[in-house]
Amino acid sequence: MPAVRGLRPREKLRARGPSALADAELLALVLGSGTAGRSALRIGRHLARRSPDELGAWSSARWLLVPGVGPAHAAALVAAFELGRRAAEGAPGGAAIRSPEDVLAQVRDLARARKEHFVVLLLNARHEMQCREVVSIGSLNASIVHPREVFQPAIMHSAAAVVLVHNHPSGDPEPSEEDLNITRRLVQVGEVVGIAVLDHVIVAMRGLVSLRARQLL
Fold first, then answer.
1. Considering only Cβ atoms within 10 Å of each terminal Cβ, which end of the chain, N or C, has fewer?
2. 51-59 mean pLDDT
3. Which CATH number fits domain 100-210: 3.50.50.60, 3.40.140.10, 3.90.1560.10, 2.60.40.730?
4. pLDDT of residue 92
5. If residue 25 lies in a helix (H) or strand (E), which one and from where to where?
């Protein structure tokens, strides 16, 4: 086997396979190229300080905040993480969402996330999932979970309905009063714009709670 010391990520991939590459090198390969004074590998090393779970939840807009990541790079990174998520979960796009368990199959990664993520699943008229959008990352409150951010992607994708999802890093999936207030607000907006909010599911290490199953929706 040829020596691999000092090899660039692409050469190392050919020589040893993807499992031999560090996170920074894999990210550099997805980026493909850097910018003046900032190589793809340097950007990759900067990004690798964060966990893959966190990076995988970033939206295109969040990627664009990283120095050296432009629109094309952002799109490639979002696509790469989405493909990885689908492969890991074995849940193909277009899966029907009929129960909280169906929702969990699309968001298993959130149960392990160390920050709160608010996600919306966009569904067609047959309640098949079209895509998953991350609305916010951080402490959940009404100021960052804005109806505009929730329903804009739903309108753009002509979604017939949505399912709201967020995680509790504490491990306890029981809804807070803030969770209930946000849900009521979004349900009201959904009625105005004609996009039904089918459920709000809270996931955590100790299980999940469906607000519809609790008759809180």
1. N
2. 86
3. 3.40.140.10
4. 47
5. helix 23-31
Measured between alpha carbons, how far is 116 from 87 in angstroms, rounded to an integer? Answer: 23
Name the residue among 165, 164, 79, 162 with its Cα closest to residue 122.
Answer: 162
**E-assigned strand segments in the chain:** 117-123, 129-137, 161-167, 196-204, 207-210
Q: Which residues pair with 167 in a beta bridge?
A: 203
Q: So what's the pLDDT on residue 35?
A: 76
In the chain, domain spans:
9-89, 100-210
Tens of pLDDT along 118-175? 999 999 999 999 889 888 887 655 445 889 889 998 998 889 999 999 999 999 999 9
The four Cα atoms 134, 166, 98, 181 give a dihedral, to 10 degrees, of -110
Kindly state the tokens that stand for 94.
């277009």
Q: Does the structure show a pLDDT above 70 at 215?
A: yes
- Asked if 117 contacts 136 with a C-beta cutoff of 8 angstroms, the reply is yes
Q: d(Cα 164, Cα 166) in Å, to the nearest integer?
A: 7
Please say whether the dihedral angle defined by the alpha carbons of residues 105, 87, 92 and 159, taken in this order, is positive or negative.
Answer: positive
Contact predicate 97/121, CB 8 Å: yes
